Amino acid sequence: MKKDSVRLGVVGLGFMGQTHATNAEEFGHNVVAGTDIDPTARDEFEVAYNATTYEGFEAMYEAEDLDAVAVSTPNTYHEQAVVGALEHGYDVLCEKPLADTLDSAERMAAAARKADGFCMVNFHNRVSTAAELFLGYQEDDHFGDVRHVRANYIRSRGIPGVGSWFTNEELSGGGVVVDIGVHAIDLALYLMGFPPIEDVFAVTRSQFGNRDDYVDPDDWYDATEEAVFDVEDSATALIRCADDRTISLEVAWAANETATQEFVVRGSDAGARLDLGGEELTMLEASKQGADHLVESSISEASIDDTGWRGSDKRFLDAVAAGEAPDFNTVEQALTTQRVMDAIYRSAETGEQVSVENSMEMKTQAPTR
Predict the structure, then answer these.
(1) What is the pTM of this model?
(2) Is the pLDDT of residue 143 over 60?
(3) Short-list 186, 231, 181, CA closest to 207
């Protein structure tokens, strides 16, 4: 039954939890409750959103009458919070990645398949003008057969605060691949229509994590003896999909090169260049009009409403209100991305190309919006 207002609970009341709550209120929904182990975070959330707070999500699930839950905890806690919410019949928005390990992600996907509610994963970079433009042209078969995507997400200086959960493998499940690489993998697969993955060859590196001159200058840095940095800060991977379609991936928290979030898509009839979460799409093609020549044309005046985190939250809340599971940012797509990340780490550990098991049915399909 369609709802005018969604009753939302938030698990994890840090920056992203507050972002989901603020967006929900701005879209006219009701932030009912939140949970966090930090009493200060709970106090601030109560004041900001006039919401009831709990130390544990189980207590919130039992006590509150919710329609949906947004989960924004460290990765290692995703499974308990998401599965618990699904078992209570709630719809769930889970922060990326789906989980800290592939086994955990598999269990979450299995729970979602059995649940009355749905689970959507917050790959917010799909909600961009550039991606929408690309999909519009792709639906008209403008690019022909898309065979390769070059995906880059490189920061010159951008290691999250050392001493935070981002750099602690026990809490995060990995480093740059799990944090920002997951966005690059997801968008590349999304632009290709999520073909089945065959195998992966990858190298990961940890060069800069213990150097305070390479952390994010706008972030916080804890150089105490207790600070943990046991994850990778850059990775290179070649991902081979069905029919020998390929994705080349470069991700880095820190590197001695210009920062970039550039994606290049190569098709049989045309190509395209766009930035992750960007507004401009550059078309790359050839023509024989007058003389053989190459065309590089930019589409820069287009725009869509509600991009990024705000757009992703709106799509989730609209689906909850409509009582219909979305075909956008699905848990099954997130599981495919998790399998790729797992293969990257296995390949980096062994130094060999590794296969990716596609245990679920995932037929080649056009991207869905």
Answers:
(1) 0.92
(2) yes
(3) 231
